[in-house]
Amino acid sequence: MFNVLTYDNIPIDRLNWLPRERFSVAPDVPRPDAIILRSHDLHGAPIPETVLAVGRAGSGVNNIPVESLSKRGIPVFNAPGANSNAVKELTIAALFLASRNIVAAAHFVRDLQGDDATIQEQVEKEKKRFGGFELAGKKLGVVGLGAIGVQVANAALQLGMHVYGFDPLLTVEHALHLSPSVTTVNRLDDLLAKVEFVTLHVPLDNDTRRLVDAQRLARLDDGAVLINFSRAGVVDEAAVCTALQSGKLHAYVTDFATRAILDQPRAIVLPHLGASTAEAESNCVTSVTESVVEFLENGEIRNSVNFPKVTLPRGSGARLAIANENVPGIVSQVSTALAAADLNIENLLNKSRDNYAFTLVDLNTDVSAETLRLIRSIKGVLSARFIPRSAGFFD
Fold this sequence. Notes:
The chain is of the alpha/beta class and about 400 residues long. The protein has three domains: about 1-85 and about 280-305, Rossmann fold; about 85-270, NAD(P)-binding Rossmann-like Domain (Rossmann fold, 3-Layer(aba) Sandwich), CATH 3.40.50; about 305-395, ACT domain (Alpha-Beta Plaits). About 30% of the residues lie in helices and about 20% in strands. The chain has helices spanning about 65-70, 85-100, 100-110, 115-125, 145-160, 170-175, 190, 215, 235-245, 260, 280-300, 330-340, 370-375; strands at about 1-5, 25, 35, 55, 75, 140-145, 160-165, 185, 195-200, 225-230, 250-255, 265-270, 320-325, 345-355, 355-365, 380-385. Helix 1 links the parallel strand 4 (about 55) and strand 5 (about 75).
């Protein structure tokens, strides 16, 4: 039986597909084997020693202490692409909100006083204040061509826009889904100099923090539109405020509210709605739960942000799952320990990613507690567990 601790009121009814004889899922389970959450902040929170995996029902993991968990050999899973359609649709909506002054116009009409004749007179008199422009023929720059960025780029083409994309880490998988009509650009500065709209779809990390700053905003034509549904920190907020005040930016559409941005009349601020659809929430919960369950039952890793992808078909016997630092000699020491215990290795797979590695070892029989203790004592091994052969959910 695996205990899965949930936060953020993750609907238990969306996890009814898990066999109850093997999984106990609740916000108050004791001695959890895994944690599944959305926005709950784990930084500084005690994480029980029993935890083997943490899964976020979303893409970003800023609310999870990834590095400290990595040092404990705990994979952190996310759900990349599960909310991509929801964010794509909101991004397309943002293009219209900004180009047609829809929010300001709606507020104007809502505040009108008087009878129908008076309202119609005011509408006709003031509507020119909210004149906008069409998207067809305009140039859009998509920064980040992952699951969301690719969908946004392709959808914008259907609106008649000319689309440019920038992503130095573009994967083959995402490139295959990107329309050949999208022009890829090798430098962000070059993209900004070409476009009238910019939409950001990148994770927040050391490379993307304040990615769009005053110098890069200066490369845009006056009256450009900036859309940020990534994270607040990927833009320099002070520079954005200055650009809004000067008219360098016609509008800034974002999902992240701060006092400084809310005080800007040209800003359109939403309450973090990017993935707030029933479909996206369900997809994210299902996706990350599948990854966590696969890891708990078979030791396999998919969609982890801190450990490599490791998948190995189960043999007829038991399995060892070992997380370790990416240093030489660990696999050979594990093999030596198994040989000393007269255990035959049926299959072995070792993969590394940056500072960490993960090893799956299939064996002809069970592993004793003493042998497992010996493997855990090897310098550089972060965690090791024995997974007996059983009828796993994904078998």
